[in-house]
């Protein structure tokens, strides 16, 4: 797999496939991609680059030079997949658009991840996660009801575009098993963001009303949100009458079961503004560990609102191997997130740190048939 990507969305696509065993070759300009110069660094190595490019090999290539484009074309001859995230039109100017490479390798699956996709009136525009969150409607339902527009705390559009790209690649590879031919996979931050609004879009179509921000609350169920404890916050997921009964008994508020305002899920949803203060009048009287233990014993879904130190140290996170240790040749010992999908027969693994700049130039060029003399000439001309 050839990775001609930068930033987050497209590198996250190739990262997930690399974790599952794909041989990903990351192509960077001789000076390195911008993510290498991120603010959060360890021994001069940006943490963002280390996080997004583990399990990949690395080669430096100047794609503005014909000799550099030739290196990529040689890679394409034997590659299964190429992923790039240039604005539409840039890859064509460089000579590495799908139309340029498909004749070289008709079996190539070529994935483009951009801000707005390769067609439509916004195709030429640059796109960022924040822009996609705003345009898709996500920001209109995030944050407090009467607060300023708020983005999700994570770059959900970047990350979901990467996942949709990986999904599209796998679908295209499966189709290739039947047809013998590759194809173009085209997705974007905006499409990924819109696709994530399946609940909100449906609510609008069914009711005719635009969904609104509700903080941590659910649109239809209550209490299904964060509640205050004496030492922080916990979340509860009470979406049935049976769970509401169990919840009220667990926090010793059986009186609420007799209140007609809270009789049934719809009634609780309508009277959420009255219900939540009554619940928090009780929950603020004890620490969250107390309530979590009682709710767990009662079979009510609940959990703490963790900080990242707490989340990464959680015993379930550790038991599922979602934190792993690596040793980077420049940064030294580093931690990385684990593989979130467990396969019983062919599990993924995080076992290779992100490459140093040009770390695998010699090995990859040798695989492509370049002699040592040719490699020295390419390096002398700063093509690699």
Mean pLDDT: 96
Q: Can you tell me the number of structural domains?
A: 2
What is the terminal-to-terminal distance? 19 Å
CATH topology of the largest domain: Rossmann fold
The proportion of residues forming helix, as a percent range, comes to 40-55%
Q: CATH superfamily of the largest domain, called what? A: Crotonobetainyl-coa:carnitine coa-transferase, domain 1
Low-confidence stretches: none
- The helix/strand series, from N terminus to C terminus, equals EHEEEHEHEHHEHHEHHEEHHHHEHHEEHH
Count of DSSP E strands? 13
State the shape.
elongated
Oligomer: single chain
CATH class of the largest domain: Alpha Beta
Number of helices: 17
- The CATH architecture assignment of the largest domain turns out to be 3-Layer(aba) Sandwich
Spatial order of strands in the largest sheet = 5-2-1-6-7-8
User: Radius of gyration from the CA trace?
Assistant: 25 Å
- Most strands sheet: 6 strands, parallel
Structural class: alpha/beta
Percentage of residues in strands: 15-25%
List the main descriptive attributes of the protein structure presented here.
384 residues; alpha/beta; Rossmann fold; formyl-coa transferase, domain 3; three-stranded antiparallel β-sheet; 17 helices
